[in-house]
Amino acid sequence: MNIFIRYGKASAILSARLAACVLWFIAHALNVDLVVDMRNGQPPTPVGLAQVAGFTLSLSLLAWGVLTALEKYAKHGKTIWRILALTTLAVSFLPILGVEASVGTKIALSLMHGAVAAVLVPWLPLKRQDPA
């Protein structure tokens, strides 16, 4: 049985977090600097593992909350949520394009965004099934 169905939404959230963190480790192993300059007069900011894990967890929990509300109050809640999630993914690439960073950093960050969406969009809306 699929782990996402068996253990519910929490497993999808944890898997999305794991995917982002694994990509962070791969980028780090490949000597990608993972430093972004927001062009706001502040010094460039390193993207650390704690930031990746924290943002992924926070935004995944937010996605879960929005999905829960839409399922409760909207006729086609899952469909609306998937459209919102994919729109959010597309918009999430805009800051990556707007910051000063190496090509490797931009690729790594884009892959992290895509990996989180690749886990959450199909699996978060699934209903949990009790083990047989």
Characterise the protein shown here:
The chain has helices spanning 3-7, 9-29, 49-73, 77-98, 103-123, and strands at residues 35-36, 45-46. It is built from five helices and two strands; from the N terminus they run ααββααα. By secondary structure, it is mainly alpha-helical. The mean pLDDT is 92. It starts with a helix and ends in a 9-residue tail after the last helix. A two-stranded antiparallel ribbon has the order 1-2.
Cα radius of gyration in angstroms: 16 Å
Q: How many strand units?
A: 2
The 3D shape can be described as globular
How far apart, in Å, are the first and last alpha carbons?
10 Å
The tally of domains stands at: 1
Helix content: over 70%
Strand order of the largest sheet: 1-2
Strand fraction: under 5%
Give the helix/strand class: mainly alpha
Largest sheet: 2 strands, antiparallel
Q: Note poorly predicted spans.
A: none
Mean pLDDT: 92
Order of helices and strands: HHEEHHH
- State the helix count: 5
